[in-house]
Amino acid sequence: PTPEEVRTIKRLAQYREDLFHVAVAGVAGGGKSSLINAFRGLRNMDINIGAAATGTTETTTAITRCPDPNVEYPYVWYDVPGAGTLKTPDWQYFNDQGLYICDCIIVLFDNRFTMTDIAVLTNCKRFKIPTYIVRSKADQHIYNIMKDMGYDSDNVEDRKQHHHIARQRFIQQTRQSVKDNLENANIPDQRVYIVSNETMLSVVKEKQPKKVIDEIELLNDLIWEAQTRR
């Protein structure tokens, strides 16, 4: 991008030097808006106090600026339209969305890694923008694995056992899948954070949820990133 393009994008995004700008990018329907709401301590139903719109289909058609409701927190979140909803080639998605102005980018995926995810990670490396690979909807995926295992019981102990096995299987499969995808794309290996939006909301609200996977570490790492970048 030219210096003029950078200035234009920063103006449109209401970029401020004293804030930390985080974009959440990924395919349509991957849960970007719900995750942003959780990071901001909001439920999806909190539309009247600024929650990002969510839905079963892609509800974001233009990049949406979501400031943190707590003015003491120096974060601005950007809800990026899902790739696949726009007539944009994967390689062009990064530039067209103006992601190069961001301080940090979360690449969110739900079921599979896509060429757009790879394109965003590759461009972030070129622009030296920190990235976080995040898999969302962990609770839903774990429950689906439990059903595939034949779980059908009201017994509490039986449920705990099946949940533990399904959880471990889901974590292992996700980490291996990301590792394989990065290797195939010639991108250095990096961590994947596995989260549930509901659990992330509880963590942000300083509760003590029982079913934490990577939510606390992701939040702490983003806070550290903001403190070192600003």
What percentage of the residues does DSSP assign to strands (E)? 5-15%
Number of beta strands: 6
* Shape, per Cα inertia axes: globular
Look at the helices and sheets and give the structural class: alpha/beta
- Main sheet? 6 strands, mixed
Quaternary organization: single chain
Strand order of the largest sheet: 2-3-1-4-5-6
DSSP helical segment count:
8
| Helix/strand order, N-terminal first | HEHEEHEHEHHEHH
Indicate the percent of residues in helices.
40-55%
The CA-CA distance between the termini, in Å, is: 23 Å
Keyword list:
44% helix, 8 helices, alpha/beta, six-stranded mixed beta sheet
Q: Please, could you describe this protein's structure?
A:
The protein is an alpha/beta fold and 230 residues long. The protein is 44% helix and 13% strand. The protein contains eight helices and six strands. Helix 2 (32-39) runs parallel beside helix 7. The chain is globular, with a radius of gyration of 18 Å. The mean pLDDT is 86.
Question: What is this entry, summarized?
Answer:
44% of the residues lie in helices and 13% in strands. It is an alpha/beta fold.
Please write out the topology.
Elements: H1 3-12, E1 20-26, H2 32-39, E2 64-67, E3 75-79, H3 90-96, E4 104-109, H4 115-127, E5 131-135, H5 138-148, H6 156-184, E6 192-194, H7 197-204, H8 215-229
Parallel strand pairs: 1-3, 1-4, 4-5, 5-6
Antiparallel strand pairs: 2-3
Helix pairs in contact: 2-7, 3-4, 5-6
